[in-house]
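WARN retry 2 of 3 for item q-0093 after timeout on previous attempt; input resubmitted unchanged.
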Amino acid sequence: MKKQLWVLLVVILFVSGMNVALAQHAATLSFSVPFTFEVGEIIFPASDYQITYDGSDPNHLQLLDTKTNKKKFITFLTRLSPRAEGSVVFDTAHNMRFLSEVYFGRSDGFQVRTTHEAHTHVVEDGKTTD
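OK item q-0093 returned
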């Protein structure tokens, strides 16, 4: 009986360790933006960026301007269906672009902003690294 309990304990610890490792698996999307855009109340310049989701904070993505090393945490509204390739989607309304969706490729996407007014989309391709 003691041997079975030890085996069960080892299995439980092994499975728990796998869940922690999977939860902290980070995905990063690198992309270039040739225009200014807004996230929340902050305006970002045309630059090279990385967005990271590591799972440690279930409601935020991290945006990094790779030229200036400035970081911004972005609250996302919901997860979206996965896409095969990584990309970011910007909504364009009133002559301004807003970060709207983020897709890391082969995993869930993230809705950052919604709008009910008339708008168009601009999609910038990115490269996902795990």
